[in-house]
Automatic annotation (TrEMBL):
MF-aspect GO terms: calcium ion binding
Highest taxon of source: Eukaryota
InterPro entries listed in its UniProt record: EF-hand-dom_pair, EF_Hand_1_Ca_BS, EF_hand_dom, KIC/PBP1/KRP1
Organism (species): Actinidia rufa
Positions of the EF-hand domain: 66-101
Leader sequence residues: none
Pfam families (alphabetical): EF-hand_8
Name under which the protein is recorded: Pinoid-binding protein 1
Key words, A-Z: Calcium
Taxonomy of the source species: Eukaryota, Viridiplantae, Streptophyta, Embryophyta, Tracheophyta
């Protein structure tokens, strides 16, 4: 049975595309895409993914039917500092944790990541190019 046929039979089947994205794009571009995803979902004024910004973007995510309690749980899953929102670092860590394939490859990717003083994520090669 093909994976598309299995997805039709099981609406909760999760296909992890992150490992193939890292392989195809490379670590720098993949981290850039994660950061772009963060920017898409964040509250522009606060620079964080908040309950309100995530609620506004449920349509973009294809999750229009999501209940408020589920959004709160999503935020709590990645909220490492307890402020009720996700900064860029927390978002990237959460994305890695939610990807079984990336967890297997995470050592290689995280060795190439740098967190700056504002908790922004960059790749090591990008930082080296700035110096």
């Amino acid at each position: 049975m093909s994976s598309s046929a299995m997805a039709i039979d099981d609406p909760f089947l999760f296909e992890d595309y992150f490992p193939s994205m890292v392989e195809r794009l490379g670590t720098d571009a993949f981290i850039g895409e994660l950061c772009n995803g963060f920017c898409l979902l964040m509250d522009v004024e606060k620079g964080l993914i908040t309950f309100e910004s995530l609620r506004r973007n449920t349509f973009v995510l294809g999750l229009e039917e999501m209940r408020d309690e589920e959004i709160v749980c999503m935020l709590a899953e990645g909220d490492l500092d307890g402020d009720g929102a996700l900064n860029q670092m927390e978002f990237c860590i959460l994305m890695f944790r939610l990807s079984p394939g990336l967890m297997d490859q995470s050592k290689r990717c995280t060795d190439e990541m740098v967190i700056d003083e504002n908790n922004h994520v960059a790749s090591l090669s990008y930082v080296n190019n700035l110096v």
